[in-house]
Every structure is written in C-alpha cells, then in structure tokens.
Amino acid sequence: MPPNGLAFNLQSKALCSFYLNMSWLYPPFKPTMNTAPILFHSTSKKTSVLRQIVLLLTISTLFTACKQPENGDRNKPDTSTITLEKLVGSPAYSDATLELTEPGNLTNLEEGTVDFTFTVENYELGAQTEGPNAEKLANSGKGQHIHFIVNNQPYSAHYTPSFMRELPAGTHHLVAFLSRSYHESVKNENSVVVKEVKVGPDDANTQDLNMEAPTLIYSRPKGEYSGKDTEHLMLDFFIFNTTLSENGNKVRATINNEEFLITEWAPYIIKGLPMGEVSVQLELIDKDGNQIPGPFNTVERTVTLKE
C-alpha cells in the first residue's frame, strides 16, 4: 500500500533531498545511439552502462515522488455529505389530545388479538397536515394517524381511533401518539399514551421494564423511500422521564457511521444520503457520553433508498 498523510510527505521530501545530494556524483543519463553496443564491449563498459540504467530508474522514481503534492487527493479523508438539521414549520397542535379508552384493564389481557379504542380531540385523523413539510417529506395519502408502538418495535399506523393488534403473552411497553400526515409526532403532554400492558397468564417482565426510567422510543425514518422522498428523511423519536440539553442527557444519532449529538427533543431532517441501505442508530446517553441503562435506549434500524 502507498504511504499516506504526513508519512508520505516526509518520505517524498527525503527522497528529493537524496536525489539532489547524489546528482553531483552522476551526471544525468542521456541515451545515445552508441548505448546498446557498449553493453557487450567490455566488463568496465558494461558496469558503467548498468550503473547508468540503475541511476535512470532511481531518478524516475524520485522524480515521481517529488511531483507528489503534499495534500494529494488520495491523502484526503472521505468527506461525508450527510447533514442533520432541525425541522421547522409544522403546525403545533398544542391542544390535541389522545386517550386510551379500551381496553380498560391492561393487567389481565388474553393472549392474541386485542381491541384498542382511543379518543382523539382537537385533531382530525385522516386529514392532510397543512404546510410546506407535507411537500418535501414522505407523506401519507391517508392523512394524519396514530403511531402505535409495542416494545420499541417499528410502529403500525392507524387512521381510525379503533383497531386490533396481536399481542403475545408477557409484559409489554405500549406507546401511542398522534402523527402528522408526514409522520412527524405531535409533541405535547396530552398527545401521547404510555402504558404497561400485561398479557396472558405468563406475564413475566422479561425485559425488565421500568416505566419511570428515562426511555427512548424510535419512530422515523422507517421502511423504503423512493424518488424525491429520498432527499429529506425525517428523524423523529420520543423521550420519557428525562430532558435533553447541551450539558445534560443527549441522543446520539449514528447515520451510516456518521455521529450527531442531539441536545433538543425535536424532529430533524437527514440530507445527503446515498441510495441503497441506510443504517440509523439512536442512543440515549448521559452528559459524559455513557449509555443510559434501559431495554430501549439503544435502537438501530435500516431503511432503503431507491431511485
């Protein structure tokens, strides 16, 4: 492998210096019509010509090294074009509310299909969210909806207040929140439902859930994107029982191995992504960069971008 960075620069300078110091010993080699026959006339002449050939090869190598720029393209690190910026311009829906009404008892549900019913106020499910973000982000033609998340797995979207979901036996962490038509969550105290759900006779808390602990819940990006939807991907999540700040807890987002520290709970736009698979990892960390314990506080998803 060729040297790079500072090591290459130092080697190039050393070789150039070596060449300059040697040039007085051997005058530059200039091939002539008499060169080929000389190789076979005598031992001394053969030695002289061989020495000149070796010197020619050495000079050629040194000249190439001397011509290398100190900051050649091959020495430059890859510069990522991925950027992350806060999304603004969405209607606030500060008075929108979401409330779980059925099932009423969440501690003794039967395993299998469960009927859920929510009450929604000051928010219209199925309507298109107004504003410029609906044009630049992946937008659902079915309109505004509810994101329903169990144990921080990928959400299911529901456009009516009543629907059914399959739940296996065990203790589960349920999160439901109102979502704009382009999948941005509505972030106020009354637009989200967080519940512990116990299903079946074997409802052991195998995930060591603590409903009072700081918790990160992933929402977007999700699935496949194509066409203009690949230009702006929304990064969105929920946090519970904590806040984010410059000097406190943060979310570390790693997108295709590029790290971003998030100090404000808000939606963000990812730009500059390549086509193909994109990895997104979110971690809830403390002020020192250490991961905050919790079964959902590190999550990684893969989405796909297509032309």
Can you walk through the features of this model?
It is a single chain. The chain is α+β, with helices and mostly antiparallel strands and 307 residues long. The protein contains 4 helices and 16 strands. It has helices at 5-22, 35-38, 43-67, 133-136, and strands spanning 83-86, 97-102, 112-121, 145-150, 156-158, 162-167, 170-179, 192-199, 215-220, 224-226, 233-240, 250-255, 258-262, 268-271, 276-285, 298-306. The strands form 4 sheets. The chain has a 5-stranded mixed beta sheet with strand order 10-16-15-12-13, with no helix packed on it. Strand 4 (145-150) and strand 5 (156-158) form a beta hairpin. Helix 1 (5-22) runs antiparallel to helix 3. The protein is globular, with a radius of gyration of 32 Å.
The outline comes out as globular
Biggest sheet: strand arrangement: 10-16-15-12-13
- Kindly estimate the percentage of residues that lie in beta strands according to DSSP: 25-35%
Order of helices and strands: HHHEEEHEEEEEEEEEEEEE
How far apart, in Å, are the first and last alpha carbons?
35 Å
Q: Can you summarize the main beta sheet?
A: 5 strands, mixed
Uncertain segments of ≥5 residues (pLDDT<50)?
1-43, 62-78
Task: Determine Rg (CA atoms, Å).
Answer: 32 Å
**Mean pLDDT, as a whole number?**
83
Structural class: alpha+beta
